[in-house]
Amino acid sequence: MSSPARSSPRCAPQPLLRAQQILDWHDAFLHGRAPRPPAGDAWQWIGGNHRSNVALWGEEDKARRTDVADSAIAACKRRIDGLNQRRNDAVEKLDEAIHAWLQEVRCGQPPETEQSAALSSETPGAMIDRLSILALKVHHMRIQAQREDEDDAHRARCAARLEVLIEQRGDLAACLDALLAGLPEGRTRFRVYRQFKMYNDPRLNPELYRRARDRAQGDGAAAQSAAQSAANGEAGTDLLVDVLVPTCDRPAALAVTLTSLLAQTFSPLRIVVSDQGETYPVEAQRETQAVVRVLRARGHRVEILRHLPRRGLAEQRYFLLGQSHAPHVLFLDDDVVVEPDLVARLYATLVEQRCGFVGSALIGLGFAGDRRPQEEAIEFWEGPVEPEAVTPDSPAWQRHRLHSAANLWHLQTRLALDARRQRLYRVAWVGGCVLFDAQKLREAGGFEFWPELPAEHCGEDVLAQLRVMKRFGGCAIIPSGAYHQELPTTVPRREFDAPRLLSA
User: Fold this and answer.
1) Where does residue 225 fall: left (phi above 0), alpha (psi -120 to 50 degrees), or beta otherwise?
2) What is the 3-state secondary structure (H, E, C) of 222-262?
3) Which of 118, 165, 174, 296 is 20 to 30 Å apart from 461, CA to CA?
């Protein structure tokens, strides 16, 4: 008796993904010219997985340094754990997206019912993750094979390894294509078992759950002590805050901003400047050289990093966040003047509230004579700061009007607020001066979305804040202690607005 013929789909759909397209996008991303990934859930997670792997590669390199403090390596290890979690989460989400597509093209019949189909030991997501890692190996081995500062033997050895890696990637790509091509027809199948990572789960890691109760009891007292120390300007010797400053051809404005940091009661600080100036490089300008020397003499750490080519502000902020080691990061624009107690106030508030960010909105005192009472509406936080979702054009979006011109100045003057009578209020976003919990910012994705934006864009800081606020909450303080230098914007094109292009 002959066996019945295997049923096949009424049509033969094209594979959801093709390996070569994935390889090309991986390579383009590493060369800084990746186009926006194609639409669809699968590509969303392919992009997220690759961005996590790229960041992981850099962190793994940093973790092997021997010229930094142990605390820096510990912070690096925590970032590695977080990135590994996001990488694995993206793999599982990718497999779920492929499963969902299969149910559609097979009329809802899951592939597991085709018991005669060849079962793959790896899921498509796991194979794409391996392709991402191989792309990194190929990229960096090619760099080694072309190094002019090494001898011929080194280059030859790396060239031979490069050939093997290219062959390995090609073989894996062919296996992925075979798996994907066979799925709609029932010739191949895979199963998603979940990875059940235990070390990041506080309910499963004994080193975490055994201490959970003690930590819960001690956190309140620790937070109160840290907040009081910060308010008194007693930050101690540990660097608790990295100040991250993107700049481009504005040396005089940058010098003013850095000078205002010199007066901070919260000390010491680590200040990292990402310089994309081509006409006025920061390290060649006397005004910036002078203030950097004074900052260093007063015990602050200052790093001026050249970062070219320009790929947009989102990428520049992504780069800056990658340089940070502190548990808190203050993103500060290069045209801001801050009052001496501002960093201490921001830090104390963030520690007390345990939210994702605290901002100090910029005041334009050039508009002190321009009163706009219709834009002075404010919503105070009467209790703890909590997560909230804000989207463009929602009612909460209109909160941004409070930050225009000198509205905050007029309001805080009318309410007789000062540093001793500080209030917290709800925001749509805060521009120019925002202190983040670094781990929460990274868990919300940081600025990893930068490849999805054209180089000419705006609102990248807004999008990052919206994502942090949705998960962890965010607020601003009044009175503000930050003032705008009121220079012309360096981002004149506003048609590509990140919060409207990408989902929060």
Assistant:
1) alpha
2) HHHHHHHHHHCCCCCCCCCEEEEEEECCCHHHHHHHHHHHH
3) 296
Whether omega before 38 lies within 30 degrees of 0, making that bond cis, reads no
pLDDT, tens digit, 9 for 90 and up, residues 447-501: 999 988 888 899 999 999 999 999 999 999 999 999 999 988 777 777 789 999 9
Residue 64 CA from chain centroid, whole number: 22
DSSP string, 24-80: HHHHHHHTT-PPPPPSSHHHHHHHHHHHHHHHHHHHHHHHT-SSS-HHHHHHHHHHH
Amino acid symbol at 494: R
Q: Which long-range contacts (CB under 8 A, 24 or more apart) does 126-129 make?
A: 126/91, 126/95, 127/172, 127/175, 127/176, 127/179, 128/17, 128/22, 128/46, 128/49, 128/91, 128/94, 128/176, 129/49, 129/53, 129/87, 129/90, 129/91
Nearest CA-CA partner of 261 in 300, 305, 227: 300
Domain with CATH 3.90.550.10 in the chain: 212-501
Q: Cβ of 15: how many Cβ atoms within 10 Å?
A: 17
Domain 212-501 is classified in which CATH homologous superfamily?
Spore Coat Polysaccharide Biosynthesis Protein SpsA; Chain A (3.90.550.10)
Q: What is the pLDDT of residue 228?
A: 52
DSSP 497: B
C-alpha span between 350 and 436 (Å, rounded): 8
Q: What angle do CA 270, 272, 275 make, to 5 degrees?
A: 165
What is the Cα–Cα distance from 256 to 337, expressed in whole angstroms? 7
pTM of the model: 0.60
The span from the CA of 12 to the CA of 71, in Å, is: 56
